[in-house]
Amino acid sequence: MTTILDRRITPFRPDLAARHLAGQVEAPRFVDPQAMRVIVPSAPLRREPRLDAPLDTEALAGELVEVYEQEEGWAWVQLAGDGYVGYLPDDALRADQPAPTHRVTALRTFVYPGPSIKLAPLAMLSLNAGVVVAAMNGDFAVLGDGGHIFAKHLTPQDRHEPDFVAVAERFLGVPYLWGGKTSLGLDCSGLTQLALAAAGVASPRDSDMLEAALGRAVAFDEDLSGLQRGDLVFWKGHVGILTDPDTLLHANGYTMTVHREPLKEARDRIRDKSFGAITSIKRLG
What we know:
By secondary structure, the protein is mainly beta. It folds into three domains: 17-95, SH3 Domains (SH3 type barrels, Roll), CATH 2.30.30; 102-156, Roll (SH3 type barrels); 164-283, endopeptidase fold (from Nostoc punctiforme) (Alpha-Beta Complex). Helix content is 12%, strand content 36%. The chain has helices at residues 164-169, 188-198, 207-213, 263-273; strands at 17-18, 30-31, 34-38, 42-46, 55-60, 64-71, 74-79, 85-89, 93-95, 102-104, 108-111, 123-126, 130-131, 133-137, 140-143, 148-150, 154-156, 181-182, 185-186, 216-217, 232-235, 238-244, 247-252, 257-262, 280-283. The longest helix has 11 residues, at 188-198. The two termini are 34 Å apart.
């Protein structure tokens, strides 16, 4: 039987592949990866090494990346967190970086050059971005690179949110962006993955992967009764989160925002105009 490998999460190309895939795929060259970390607030992971190539996802500050090739300003990588494979800008990465000690819990926060909100910010970080805290200075956390972040916008990496749905609700009104994964723009699976990660639940990137990997299936009927807060509703190519038994929260191309609406209205519109019928409803825990 031939095994079909998912190219989204398997580091192989016709000319190059990860060494651990030797014997599973054909390639003229197999290499071991170099571990690097993202050193910019967010980096676009594209399907091809071109600025106009489709955006598949984004890597956030502090993320660990396995780099298989660096050439002409691009790095061909696999994200360590969810395994996604693609091309990142080469200057977004650096080797020999320490692992983050803290992550951002605010929807977004600024990095200042010193312990004052009156200083011109150096950068903006989005929820779940990782940073290295070296010391405290009053209300500010001092980062290993000298930047300052309002300390109440951070939490240690090993502390997690108690309610992933509440995390997702913070994104209400954020613009829809295909492949996006920050508070400036994100898609349906990006919203779900970010919210789950804040609650300590690792998950894949795309909606079909989420549907296959998470929770247990919940039986449902035409009335969509018996559902609860936190259930994940899946269509072929789309996912939303229930904030209560009758209300769906989702990043969508209909409003082009993260939007909350009655589940039945969303179900009917999506069925008739875009992704077809609900394929499953999954419950975590």
